């Protein structure tokens, strides 16, 4: 194998993954390490920064060793990680407390108080960021810290995100990228922070804690000698500024052309459309991510994606949950049950936080509808998979997507039957790109751009011979069974979500 090669790091709250790629984006080696979060109080979600750094360094070292390539042929590193939250550092870059993650909910009362004082508070934020603000976003977390831990903020020099903390540890450079700045919440149109939104939270005295904003594909520093020795690469290895996990994953799919739809069917299910301008319609629902190359990703999120299938295995078929052949058994169950699952419907709202699309409803919950004695677990499994596919069709409708292709990645995309079912239900070609580590690949491409090896990041991803393509069958979305099942799904959704759901 000949280089150059590029490392991509994708650090999450439950797993940290790294991969080595060539310039075409082919995976040379992959490694991953399970990580954990701490929940010291109900609704809190924290990470030990030292553990996170050790996981990142360890997984990068493993992938370098297992790749077998010459360290001198590795030309750069790109970093992606779970977005927002707060990693609070002192002037020397040492963490002052455990990191607060994106899923932390401690800011609920603070946000509720803002809404009580200013009923359009959330709408004003959406008008700037294009996203329904989550409780674990950086600005509300900083406001909570200012109220409850002011002594800590008085000692702080920086408040950064996960990937930016890792980049500092690797290079000694403090900064962030536009994908993070715009969702603090910030300004999607400006691709930056928003002073107006900072003021909404009363955070003017702490504005200086937020780091400089740079392009994701810019050079973010060079690797320190001690870190390079631990990983097994050369000292001074270029490190790109990097991007948040969603932005890096979308980039890693290879679809930055405006009008293309991309879906991530992972633990959560996100469906979105690439645009060359920030899109704020429909208002007060969904998310808007700022991507490299003056692109944006307007997305709708069903909080539970493959989580629904995991629940089904663990609850409905515990005898299958740990079996290596469980997905082959799943395929057999799908073969034994017709589309529509004999009239059984499932709403895939399996989250304690409810849903934020197609409408915002914290009380929405998963449920079966139409359950009768004839329904066995094969029917229930088909209903679960169809329910997620129907939800994806819902989200495409909310986005007013008119295209004919949906690029699909994530753990759920590895199942051909589910991918084909999605193609039939959404009525569009589904393309599953070759590869498994799309967040790491997007980060690696940022490193390739930062080092001058990739001139046009928009053209980085090409359809490869290894891509799997699923055409909607002529009897797919228009088949009577699916039409009947979709009508039943929408009736159940209307009962659950009320009149607002009729507009989605």
Brief sketch in words of this structure:
With about 500 residues, the chain is of the alpha/beta class. It is about 35% helix and about 20% strand. A hairpin with a 3-residue loop joins strand 1 and strand 2 (about 15-20).
Taking the alpha carbons of the first and last residues, their distance comes to 50 Å
CATH class of the largest domain: Alpha Beta
Shape: globular
* Overall residue-averaged pLDDT value: 93
Bin the strand percentage: 15-25%
Which CATH architecture of the largest domain?
2-Layer Sandwich
Instruction: Report the sheet with the most strands, covering strand number, pairing sense and barrel closure.
Output: 7 strands, mixed
How helical, in percent, are the residues?
Answer: 25-40%
Strand order of the biggest β-sheet: 16-17-15-14-20-21-22
Number of helical stretches of at least 4 residues? 16
Radius of gyration based on Cα positions: 22 Å
Count of discrete domains: 2
Structural class: alpha/beta
The count of β-strands is 22
Poorly predicted tracts of residues: none
CATH topology of the largest domain: Nucleotidyltransferase, domain 5
Q: Name the CATH superfamily classification of the largest domain.
A: ATPase, nucleotide binding domain
Family: Belongs to the FGGY kinase family.
Pfam families: FGGY_C, FGGY_N
InterPro entries: ATPase_NBD (IPR043129), Carb_kinase_FGGY (IPR000577), FGGY_C (IPR018485), FGGY_Carb_Kinase (IPR050406), FGGY_N (IPR018484)
Domain Carbohydrate kinase FGGY N-terminal: 6-252
């Amino acid at each position: 194998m000949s280089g150059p090669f590029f490392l991509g790091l994708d650090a999450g709250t439950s797993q940290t993954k790294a991969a080595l790629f060539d310039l075409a984006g082919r995976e040379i080696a992959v490694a991953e390490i399970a990580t954990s979060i701490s929940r010291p109080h109900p609704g809190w979600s924290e990470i030990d920064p030292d553990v996170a750094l050790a996981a990142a360094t360890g997984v990068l070292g493993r992938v370098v060793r297992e790749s077998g390539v010459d360290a001198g042929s590795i030309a750069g590193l790109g970093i992606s990680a779970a977005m927002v939250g707060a990693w609070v550092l002192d002037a020397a870059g040492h963490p002052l407390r455990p990191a607060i993650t994106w899923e932390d909910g401690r800011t609920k009362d603070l946000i509720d108080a803002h809404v009580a004082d200013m009923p359009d508070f959330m709408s004003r934020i959406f008008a700037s960021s294009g996203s329904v603000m989550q409780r674990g976003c950086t600005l509300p977390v900083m406001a909570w810290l200012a109220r409850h831990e002011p002594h800590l903020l008085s000692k702080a020099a920086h408040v950064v995100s996960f990937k930016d903390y890792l980049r500092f540890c690797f290079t000694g450079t403090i900064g962030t990228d536009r994908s993070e700045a715009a969702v603090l919440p910030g300004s999607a149109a400006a691709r930056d922070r928003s002073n107006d939104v900072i003021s909404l939270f009363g955070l003017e005295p702490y504005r200086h804690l937020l780091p400089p904003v740079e392009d994701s594909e810019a050079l973010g520093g060079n690797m320190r000698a001690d870190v390079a020795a631990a990983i097994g690469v050369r000292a001074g290895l270029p490190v790109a500024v990097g991007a948040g996990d969603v932005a890096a994953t979308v980039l890693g799919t290879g679809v930055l052309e405006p009008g293309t739809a991309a879906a991530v069917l992972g633990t959560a299910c996100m469906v979105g459309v690439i645009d060359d301008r920030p899109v704020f319609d429909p208002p007060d629902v969904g998310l808007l991510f700022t991507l490299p190359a003056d692109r944006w990703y307007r997305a709708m999120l069903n909080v539970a994606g493959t989580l629904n299938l995991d629940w089904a295995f663990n609850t409905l078929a515990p005898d299958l949950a740990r079996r290596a052949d469980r997905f082959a058994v799943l395929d057999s169950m799908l073969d034994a049950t017709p589309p529509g699952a004999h009239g059984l419907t499932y709403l895939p709202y399996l989250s304690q936080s409810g849903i934020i699309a197609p409408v915002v409803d914290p009380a929405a919950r998963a449920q079966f509808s139409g359950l009768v004695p004839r329904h066995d677990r094969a029917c229930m499994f088909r209903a679960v998979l169809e329910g997620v596919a129907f939800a994806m069709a819902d989200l495409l409708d909310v986005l007013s997507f008119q295209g004919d292709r949906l690029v699909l990645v994530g753990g759920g995309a590895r199942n051909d039957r589910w991918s084909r079912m999605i193609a039939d239900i959404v009525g569009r070609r589904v393309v599953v790109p070759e590869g498994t580590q799309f967040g790491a690949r997007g980060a690696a491409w940022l490193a390739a751009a930062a080092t001058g090896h990739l001139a046009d990041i928009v053209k980085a991803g090409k359809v490869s011979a290894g891509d799997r393509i699923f055409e909607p069958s002529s009897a797919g979305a228009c088949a009577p069974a699916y039409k009947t099942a979709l009508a039943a799904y929408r009736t159940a959704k209307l009962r659950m979500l009320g009149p607002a759901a009729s507009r989605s």
